[in-house]
Amino acid sequence: MTTDVTIIGAGLGGLALARVLHVHGIPATVYEAESSPAARSQGGMLDIHDYNGQLALEAAGLMDEFRALILEGRQAIRVLDPDGNLLFDKADDGTGGRPEVQRGELRQMLLDSLPDGTVRWGRKVTAARTLGEGRHEVTFADGGTVVTGLLVGADGAWSRVRPLLSDAVPAYIGKSVVETYLFDADTRHPAAAKTVGGGSMFALKQGRELFAHREKGDTLHAYVGIAEPLDWFAAIDFDDADAAKARIAREFDGWAPELTALITTSDVAPILRPLHALPHRHRWDRVPGVTLLGDAAHLSAPNGEGANLAMLDGAELGKAIAAHPGDIETALTVYEQAMFPRSAEAAEAEDAAPDNPALEDVVNFFSGGGENP
Questions:
Q1: Domain 5-73+96-170+278-351 in CATH: superfamily?
Q2: 40 assigned binding-site residue
Q3: Buried-most residue among 119, 200, 221, 252 (CB within 10 A)?
């Protein structure tokens, strides 16, 4: 393998690629806009599926390290109606196939598995351009540049690499999620803690949903789903935490107080997360020396597969490169021909879900696991 590999983005997918390449003795450099691994919170928990995410970790040779991160009991599921009535309750018997881990710990595990210097922090990409003959130039915010024989965009929804391959841009899906956190929940928020239980809890009605799970350290992390246009959210002052919590909670008037407490008693200001997606079956014609993985390639509405697919993308791309030394174009063709239908199938499963799901639909989704938004 003589072609230099440049990966943009030190998320789970980009790091999985770098790790699998390292396992096969192929060096790579990862450029990341964040200044350090601790520059921002890495989000909540992820359930890592035995049919995609865990396959990536096996290819990376990290299953033992992964198992050490698993939070026992977190595959438990509770479904409630808006009145707080328990509709479904499933304990975690350890056989679910989708164990939960903290996203930040999983990312750190991948970082620790790479040689020192693999990730270059504080390198925000502003542009990328084709030089011809499969080579590309990447420009950074500090004015620096790098030229590479293989450029991989693992840089998420608003990828700076994607325009080399596609004109597609993410579009708002008509729904946003507002995140809240309740700390020391068993002591300080006992009603909400009892309602969520030891794993995940879900309650919904048309256009409104509450999802929460129990993280490490007795923390409840909630995702409040509201189907409204962006202008609706723009009218809320999220800098005024109390006012924002009150406004969001009004959308759940009449719901059981132990449910709305996940909004009103949040120990942090509510965090708005608008949801976007690329077109279903997003793909591109082969362009020499460049490809995409994860959300840069197939951003979709939260469907339980995003991080898992990103890691599998990275692992499969790494394996393809290792299997075709000296023939990058064959490697990229093999990778993309498998990645396109894999990601389309996951997105279409979400698209087929009913707008107003019945209890059976909710149970089926959560019994199969669902990556948290």
A1: FAD/NAD(P)-binding domain (3.50.50.60)
A2: yes
A3: 200
